[in-house]
Amino acid sequence: MEQGNYSVGLDIGTTKIVAIIGKENEYGKIEILGTGKSKSLGVHRGVVNNITQTISSIQQAVEQAEIDAGLKIGPVVVGIAGQHIRSLQHSDYITRPNAEEVINEEDLDKLCNQVYKLVMLPGEEIIHVLPQEYKVDGQSEIKQPIGMYGGRLEANFHVVVGQVTSIKNIGRCIKSAGLDLGNITLEPLASAEAVLSQEEKEAGVALIDIGGGTTDLAIFKDGIIRHTSVIPFGGNVITEDIKEGCSIIEKQAELLKIKFGSAWPGENKDNEIVSIPGLRGREPKEITLKNLSKIIHARVVEIVEQVYVEIKNYGHDEQKKKLIAGIVLTGGGSQLKHLKQLVEYITGMDTRIGYPNEHLAGDSDEQIASPLYATAVGLLMNALETDAKQPEMELKTVPQNDNEEKVLVEETAGMASATAGTAGKERKSIFDKWSEKLKDFLDNAE
User: Where are the domains of the chain?
Assistant: First the structure.
C-alpha cells in the first residue's frame, strides 16, 4: 500500500505510548487501520528523560500497530508537551511598501516570520506562532486581511515556546526507532482537534486534557486558539499519593484509583472497605473507600485549581472573553468518577467529558473512542491534513535539487511547465515551514 493513503499519529505520553495508523474514508471520516500501545518508561512529566527506554517503547507500540494494520509505517506526527512549554502573547507589525496593492499571503508570511525572530530565553525555541486577529491601518478585529488595502499590517500572536533540548530528544528518539519525523505539534492543540466541535470553539471553551504526567489546557474563543498551558501534574501524582497514603505498591494504587477511586468523598459510606493482598505472605491491608477518595479529592482539587488559575489568567471574567461552552475534560484522567461534578463545583462552568469519536468512522473500535486516545487521534488528524498538502509540496521541491534538470524541463515543456509551476506553488502553511526548519535543525544536531 502506498504511503499517500494512510498516516500515522504517535503520542509519546508519560504513562503510555500510542501509535495509530489511519486513513480518510470517502465520507471524510477517519478509518483506523491499526493501533499499538506500550507502557512508556523513559518519560517523566511529558519530557523524555531516558532515551533508550523511550526508543524501545516507541518501537513496541509501532510494531504492534504495523502488525495490526499489516502496513509499514513511514513518517509520523508526534505530539510535544511537558513542563517546559510556555506561551506568550506578542504583537507585531509590518509596513508595506505599496499601500495601493492588496494584502496577500506573502505579507502574512512576512509578518509571521518576523515573530520567529523574537529573542527567547537561552535554550528555548518557538514551536508555534498562531495569529489571533489582525489590524489594518488601525482598523482592528480583522479575522482575514487578505484582499484588503492597507499600508500597515499588525497582528496579535499567540506564541508557544519550548526547550530546544526536549524537542531534539524527541527527534532523536523517533530517528533511532527507525521512523521519519513528519511533524511536531503541541499536544493540547491535537486533543482539541479531536474532541471539540467548531461551535464550541466559536462560543468559547477550555479543553483540559488530564494525562499521566501533565495536564494540558487549550482555550478557544471565536474559533481561534487564545491560550495554551501545560501544568506539570497529572494522574500519576494521584497514584503516588494513594501509594504513600495507604502504604501499598504502585500497581495496586493505580488499580484502586481506576476501580474504586472517586473525586468526591461524600459519595462513599464509612463502611465500604477494600482488602488488598499483602506482599510475600504479609497480612492483607484494609482500606476504606472514604479515605481513598479523600486522598484523591485533595490532589484533584489542586490540579483543577491550577488549571482554573490559567483560565482566569486568560481573562474569562471579562464579558468579551466569556467561555460560553464551558469546559471539556479529556485524557485518561478525565475518567475518574465524579470528576465532572467536582470541576463544575470549583469553576462554576458547564463541563462535559470529551470523546474523540466525532471524526471517526462508525465501525471504529470502541476503545479508540475513549478519552485516553484523544491526543493520538488528534495527531493522526494532523498527519492526514499534512499529507493531504504533501503532493503539491513535492511538485515544488523535486527540481530544486538539480538545476540542470529544472532548465531542461522548462525548455522542453515550455508553457506546460509554467502552468505546472503555478499549480505547485500551493502555499505551505506556517506549520510546514516550521517543521522543515525543525528537521534541518535536528539533522544538524546529529
Answer: 198-357
pTM score above 0.90: no
Mean pLDDT for all residues in the chain? 85
**Cell numbers at 264, concatenated:** 468526591
Taking 3-state DSSP, the helix, strand and coil percentages for the chain, each rounded to the nearest 5, stand at 45, 25, 25
Q: Quick one: residue 157, left, alpha or beta (phi over 0 = left, psi -120 to 50 = alpha)? A: beta
CA distances from 347 to 24, 228, 246 (A): 38, 18, 30
Residue 353 CA to residue 334 CA, distance in Å, equals: 7
Q: How many CB atoms lie under 10 A from the CB of residue 15?
A: 19
How many other CB atoms are found less than 10 A from the CB of residue 16? 20
In the CATH hierarchy, which fold is given to the domain comprising 198-357? Nucleotidyltransferase; domain 5 (3.30.420)
> CB of 321 within 8 A of CB of 312?
no
Would you say 186 and 79 are in contact if contact means Cβ atoms under 8 Å apart? yes
Please say if the pLDDT value at position 403 is more than 70.
no
Question: 299: alpha, beta or left, given left = phi > 0 and alpha = psi -120 to 50?
Answer: alpha
Q: Does pLDDT of 293 surpass 50? A: yes
Measure the N-to-C terminal CA separation of the chain; round to a whole number of Å: 31
Residue that the C-alpha cell 486581511 belongs to: 145
pLDDT at 338 over 90: yes
| Mean pLDDT, rounded, for 335-358 | 94
pLDDT of amino acid 426: 41
Least confident of 66-70, 81-85, 97-101: 81-85
Residues 6+ away with beta carbon under 8 Å from 215: 208, 209, 230, 231, 233, 234, 303, 306, 307, 331, 333
